[in-house]
Amino acid sequence: MLQTRNDTLNASADTRFERLENLLTAARKAGADACEAVFAESRSLSVGVRKGAVETVERDENSDLGLRVFVGQKQAVVSVSEFSQSTLDRLVERAVAMARLAPDDAYAGLADPSRLYKDAPVDLQLFDDTHLSAESLQQRALDIETAGLSLGNDALQSDAASTGYVQNQWSMLTSGGFRGHHQTSLFFQSGRYIATDADGNMERDGEGRSVRFASDLPDVTETGRIAAERALAALGARKIETQKASVIFDKRIAKSLISQFIGAISGTMIARGSSFLKDRLGQQLFDSSVQIIDNPLRVRGLGSCLCDDEGVAVSERAIIKDGVLNGWLLNSSAAKQLGMTTTGHASRSLANAPGVSTHNVTLSAGTETIESLMASAGKGVIVTSMFGPSVNNDTGDWSAGASGFWFENGVIAYPVNEITVAGNLIDIYSRLVPASDLEIKGTLDTPSLLVESLSVGGK
């Protein structure tokens, strides 16, 4: 049963910002030329069950504070989880001392004040204060497990089912004039099953979902059923001969290919010269029908925000437009190094300087169904699971272990496992064909993707 709470996480907004203001003042007095402080709070509860019994119950409440200081072109980052005055005094002292000993970084510094988020806050619906008790989470997990087992197949057993939620708050203050607050929630559930055939061969598969609002979670019976059906469908897997074949990457794992692309256009990788796409800016990488959009302003999006982790205002960006690479993903440091402007993609933990990450990335859907792509390809592999991917960052050569299904004459024939799929990512991107089955579920979503004539390693 869902219940609502009217209380927020422990510290009030006034208390958080007063603490951060005092910390910045102390850091400036101690010799910092510029500084930023971040305060984060988190509350979570999760329950895991297996074979009808509770296996884990985890509850966590924590608060952490991070301080980044600049002394000239030197910087240091320190974090603490205890906030007595003596601890905060030592935090400031240590951070400034570390910065003075750090090497010069010509690109270190706070974000350009003209790029900071200054508009009135917009409600992106990222926080749900719904409280789920441990008892209700336990029942939901048990119901997921029961739903899968209700398929009535003796070959099936539960591997695990889990449910839970996390609620976070994040506040940042900088000496450069930024003051921001971000509050999010995440509710999740999953089920996983083991299917065993008459010879004792086992296959595992599952289903899971994470959402911002508890009311958006799918029915637990649906989660259990889908997970169990996937495990059962994988039974009887065969090995296939090594060959060149058409490969359809199921939408569940097709995003793994695009995540390699995202990493390769990170400004930090480009600045180091260690990306296979470093010379491809403004060039045609994908078919002209392909669009890849990063939209940080999606309502209830798992990666949505109004500003990045440097306080820079964010906006929707076409990373790939009509197949052409439009730009890099930049934080302030990488932008300075490349002589460009930050794109609002800074991401950081409390104990580290900002790196780069995306928000809500989507590769556009195609016009053909999976069935249509299978029919046009004739025969090949549908990959539903990948593991151990390997990529050469300089060349884009890529490979991964995989399993899935062999199809012939446009229809699925039998499951396959213990295969390897390999190719060059630049070549793969130029030839991939998106299906029409795009679903928006996470921070990176793609439809299923067909790539013809890939190397498939088998027996």
TrEMBL record:
Boundaries of every Metalloprotease TldD/E C-terminal domain copy: 242-458
> Which SUPFAM superfamilies does this UniProt record tie to the protein?
Putative modulator of DNA gyrase, PmbA/TldD
Task: Report the GO terms under cellular component.
Answer: cytosol
Where do the Metalloprotease TldD/E central domain residues begin and end? 133-235
Q: Which GO terms describe its biological process?
A: proteolysis
Metalloprotease TldD/E N-terminal domain location, by residue? 35-99
By sequence similarity, the record places it as follows:
Belongs to the peptidase U62 family.
Q: What is this protein called?
A: PmbA protein
What taxonomic lineage is listed for the species of origin? Bacteria, Pseudomonadati, Pseudomonadota, Alphaproteobacteria, Caulobacterales
